[in-house]
Amino acid sequence: MTNKITYTQQGDYLLPDLKLPEQPKVEIGIWGKRHLKYIKHHRPILYTNLLTSCKLTAYLADIDEQAEDMFFRLVKQLAEKEGITDQLKADNQMLWVKRMNNIRNRAEEIVNNELILV
Question: What domain of life (predicted)?
Answer without folding.
Answer: Bacteria
